[in-house]
Amino acid sequence: MAANALPSSGAPAPASGPDVDADTVTKRHPVAAGIDEFGDLARFSVRAIVALPGSLRYFSEALRQLAIMLPGTLTLLIGLEFIMGLSGANFTYFLLKALGASDFTGIGGSLTQRTACVSMFGYVFVSKVCGGFVAEIGSMQINQEVDAFESTGVDPMKYVVGTRIIAALLFVPISLFFTLFGFWAGYYVTAVGILDGVDGTGLNQFFFGTQGMSDVAYVGASNILMVLATVFAACFYGMRARGGPAAVGDAVARAVLVNLVAISIAGLVIVTLWYGGNFGLPIGG
Known about the structure:
Blueprint: H1 30-55, H2 59-98, H3 105-142, H4 145-151, H5 156-194, H6 200-209, H7 213-239, H8 245-275
Helix pairs in contact: 1-5, 2-3, 2-5, 3-5, 3-6, 3-7, 3-8, 5-7, 7-8
């Protein structure tokens, strides 16, 4: 009789045997879990879009987020774009020099700008801005600040998520100038100042002569698409953080991983749609 007694805690022993559902004792398949997570992210994104008009009520908070975002992000962005321009000029100059056409080094600027500017913007935005969003929102979540907003009648989707989306969208046109300028500056300094392979007038003639407003619009549209995709994911993983500080770190790592994939897919899609039928270069017969 004593062997059949309940444990001292009073709780029944865990169930076992053939009547136990296998799903309760085994982990779900990673593919199924990933599909469910993607579905949750999609539903969260729809909710964020629906709540976005109501976030205009808290426009001052969006401006505060933008003010926090600008100084460090723009400095990092223009520095890395400068390096991308330096690399692009090096590659183009020595490639064309081997062909005896180093005077046309400026042509490579318009080509590398389409990919380098967009990719580097995505990497900077994901690491600097989205990582900060996840950490901040995740900390608010585990400290029950999000629940406090709800208890006072403030919708977190409007005040926490929506204001950050607005701030990110306002960041795009400002960052576009620094993105393009940083790349051109690196390209110019390398080709004209360091390599001394072409004069400034000749470089600018081909650099700007082989691109138009459609190319600038492409960079801007790509940045907007990347911002929307990555901000939704950053806010999603921040809002679902549970536990302690380690959970926030896990959320940041997961968001960065997902966003790196997202910017790669977004860049591939928009460059195919934009330049798939016409590469946009005034050369050829």
